[in-house]
Design brief:
- The protein has 254 residues and is an all-alpha fold.
- The chain has 10 helices and no strands.
- The protein is globular.
- The model has no long low-confidence stretch (mean pLDDT 88).
């Protein structure tokens, strides 16, 4: 069980299938980041949690091998690897994990954030393995899907080994937040695809944030990321967008 409360919207597959070089380039960068993240955890926490050193070192080597495999598919298509860009989903997940940071150890949250990243990748790789028309890529993602499931189990297992019941409780808390972060990331990607600036989305969350001190929000919003964090993420995304088209003209806003 991957502990994902919200499945990826099926239209995500259509969006990435229209830009396979972009999919592969983004994936290659994600594999590099995964290797770097595993080693960063070892470097920061290996002394206090020596049990993570060996498995995360092995994981970094495996993620590097996955990068090489994905990069090979890029080269076969005559595509050069571009520069690394920020990942709104990962940024958002890290933010929501630490919005109540006094309640949870840093290492626990980092392990569980990594677990959810692997879980979401596993779920999406399954969509790619079953839905892409390119046979070579279906085979690639079918194999990597199993690896991501194993990586999820690794991070969850390391968290439970060190933190026990607290890890299981925190997993439940972060699962609800991950679903919201994934929805926001998908919304931003759809705005980008339609050529629409995410500034409007940022303005909405700024408005909600201003209201929060004076009103009682509905209970269902209690698991959502903080409004100011959602605003910041949308503004950061807007800064990376090229030319966009307003949804409504100035006259239509009147």
């Amino acid at each position: 069980m991957l502990h994902l409360l919200q499945p990826t919207d099926p239209s995500w597959l259509d969006a990435v299938a229209d830009d396979l070089p972009g999919l592969l380039e983004d994936h290659a960068h994600c594999e590099l980041k995964a290797a770097q993240s595993a080693l960063a955890l070892v470097g920061r926490f290996g002394a206090e949690a020596p049990e993570i050193v060996a498995p995360l070192s092995r994981l970094a080597r495996e993620e590097t091998a996955h990068f090489q495999e994905v990069h090979g598919h890029l080269e076969a298509r005559g595509v050069r690897l571009g520069r690394v860009e920020g990942d709104g989903y990962v940024k958002g997940l890290m933010r929501v994990a630490r919005q109540d940071h006094r309640e949870s150890p840093v290492l626990l949250d980092k392990l569980l954030v990594s677990a959810f990243i692997e879980a979401r990748s596993c779920e999406r790789f399954k969509l790619l393995a079953e839905g892409l028309r390119d046979e070579a890529l279906r085979t690639l993602y079918g194999g990597l899907m199993a690896a991501e499931a194993r990586h999820f189990a690794l991070f969850r297992g390391l968290a439970e080994q060190r933190f026990g019941a607290l890890a299981r409780q925190r997993l439940t808390t972060l699962a609800a937040r991950e679903a919201e972060v994934a929805a926001d990331a998908y919304a931003l990607s759809m705005l980008e695809r339609s050529g629409t600036s995410s500034e409007g989305m940022a303005d909405f969350f700024a408005y909600v944030s201003d209201l929060e001190p004076s009103i009682k929000l509905p209970e269902y919003l209690s698991t959502h990321p903080a409004s100011e964090d959602r605003e910041a993420l949308a503004r950061e995304f807007a800064a990376t967008q090229g030319e966009t088209t307003p949804v409504l003209s100035d006259e239509e806003w009147q």
